[in-house]
Structure formats: C-alpha cells, structure tokens
Automatic annotation (TrEMBL):
Protein name as annotated: Pyridoxamine 5'-phosphate oxidase family protein
Gene3D superfamilies referenced in this protein's UniProt entry, alphabetically: Electron Transport, Fmn-binding Protein, Chain A
Sequence ranges assigned to domain Pyridoxamine 5'-phosphate oxidase N-terminal in this UniProt record: 42-157, 176-284
Pfam families assigned to the protein according to its UniProt record, in alphabetical order: PNPOx_N
Classification via InterPro entries: Pyridox_Oxase_N (IPR011576), Split_barrel_FMN-bd (IPR012349)
Amino acid sequence: MTTDPIAAPRQPWHAGERLLQASAGMAERMAQIGPKIIRDYMPDQHRDFFAQLPFVVMGAVDEQGDPWAGVLEGLPGFAVSPDPRSLRVSAMPDADDPLRAGLGPDKSIGLLGIELHTRRRNRMNGRVAAATDKGFDVAVAQSFGNCPQYIQSRDFHFSRSPSLRFPSAPHELAGLDDAARALIKASDTFFVASYVDTDEGGRAVDVSHRGGKRGFVRVDGNVLTIPDFSGNRFFNTLGNLAANPRAGLVFIDFERGDVLQVSGQAEVLLDSPEAQGFEGAERLWRVHVRRVVRRPGALALRWTFDAYSPTSLATGQWPKSA
C-alpha cells in the first residue's frame, strides 16, 4: 500500500529574506510560521481596516527600475475590498508623483494601510488588475499584519478636500539639498519601497514603515544611514535590499503636507561597528541617494503629534539614535 506524500507548506520567503532570517538565527522559526501568516487573500479584518483609512502608502517601480514610495489619500472608503482577493483604490498619484510611472495594468505594487492614531498597520502586495484615470484595482498576492512597534502616534485632519489637487512643478534633483537634509534630520517616520524579481519570473514590490526618535536617520551628504531595530523578523525590506539593492523612501512634513521622495542604491550592513553608535540598532542599512523629488503641499492631510500618547518619546520606549 502506498500513500501520497504530504506537500510541504508553501514558503513565502525569497532568498534575500531567508538570508537575513538566518543571520538573526530565525530561519527555522520563520519557515514554520511563514505559510500561516502570509496569505494570498485579505482577511475580513484587513478588508474592514483599509475601508476606514484616509490614506495608504504605496510602493511602485518606474521604467528605469527605480523604486518609489508615496502616499495616496481620500475620504475614508476610498480604498475598499470587494472580495478577499482584491482591493479597489479610488485615487491616483498626481501627475508630478513618480509613483505614476509605476502604476499600470499588470504592474506589481505594494500597499501599506496604516493608522498613526491607533498604530495599526497591515500590508498588501499584488498586481494592478485594472486602472483608469480615477483609480485602480489590485489582485492580492500577499496580505499580512505588522506589529505597532516604532509608530509615532499622530491625529489627522484634512486641510482641504482630498479631491482638490494642487500639483505643482516638481522639484527634481540629482541629490539632496539643504532643505531635504533638514526634513530628513527632523523626521521620526518614513516609508520605504523595495522589490525583487523572483525566480518564477514575477516581480514582488513591498512598502513598509520605519520609525524612531526624531533624527534617527543619519545624513552624510547624499548618504542616509538607517538603524534597524528589533522587529517581526520577517526582514521583508532588508531581504529585498539584500537581493536587489535599490530603495525608494518618502519623508512627510506632517504639519505642511510637503512630500520628499528619494530613490537610490542601497546596502545592508549586518556586522558594521557603526551600529554601536545607534542605540538599540541590531544592524544598519544605507541608501546612496541618486534621485530626489520634492512636492510642496502635495497632501491635503495634516497630522498633529500626540505628545500624551503612551507611545510618545517621553515614555522612553523608543530606541535612541546618534
């Protein structure tokens, strides 16, 4: 009598993610839990969560192969899930947004739903199934939740209707100027897009959140050095960068609605002695900025820092940086 072999669970991790997981001694653990937490559909609570958001963060890749991160906004309900395997977004990047070049039928994108005032976040990566001049549908490839670590608590309001767009001529630069460096040095939050081209011939794009104390990103000319603190051990971003060293970052002026988008060459520093200069950092990564887009007043949203939140800097719960 013979029995059919039991198929091993499908592993969601690619080689770059597995490399980082192994370096942290988590390869076996991640191999066990990966198939349980990375789904190819959106659970109902994720579908409900996206439907209440006033903005989502998006990652896309342009014709040059450069990743970009940016923000799409709308009144709650502008992002809805008609069924567990799709998400419909009733918003498009502005004409001056570099995200626009990476959005089209069958293009791979990453989406992050995040509420700064509740510190909840869920990620959804997939492919554009359809697009018009008013929005697009995404076919879900991966859906998973993230913990609230390092999310600074902020309340939001709209300074104008999000349907009123004021795209200006973008300030395109080949590197960081003094104003860009000042915004980055003052930031406690940014978002990062990365991607890999898989062995199966597909592309997987991801966008994620990074946070810390104000000034946690070190700026040296056109080089950004970023501490990597203890997290969920998925290593989606650093795994992507290990396999494909390109990154797109977006910094937001939460009070003015200005957006600073940068893209460049990345490197992961697993054993650098420089990490000792960033309290709480387990490793570092760098971005050598090559392209910069500044978009003043691009967002209708404004955020107010919640200094009395139990997660505020005054509690001392946040890693410090040099």
